[in-house]
Amino acid sequence: MRVTGDGRVYRALGLGPVGVRPGFQGGGVGRRLIEGALAIARATGEELVFVLGEPDYYGRFGFAPATAAPFASPYAGPYFMAIALKQDLAPPESGDAAYAPAFAALE
């Protein structure tokens, strides 16, 4: 994922929508996957993680549409969310968030 804003490039990842097979839902599998991905992202110095998904679910982990709002994206809206992994990260006035081209091929 390429994320830019206010003349800089952010270290950022796109977390694909996490899906868990229905028979395994409710057992914490999705939570462990997301928490594990965020832990690795923090450990490797990423600044932002973006996701497309259900706000009520991803909000539990700190994802918010407001964090993604400064970044232009074809997916902008209430389901386009981000989490800042660094507490002192100042949001840009405006920016762009572009997923890999293969992501657009799924539409």
Automatic annotation (TrEMBL):
Q: Superkingdom, according to UniProt?
A: Eukaryota
GO MF, one term, reads: acyltransferase activity, transferring groups other than amino-acyl groups
- Record InterPro entries: Acyl_CoA_acyltransferase (IPR016181), GNAT_dom (IPR000182)
Q: Where is the N-acetyltransferase domain?
A: 1-86
Q: What is this protein called?
A: N-acetyltransferase domain-containing protein
Q: Which organism is it from?
A: Ooceraea biroi
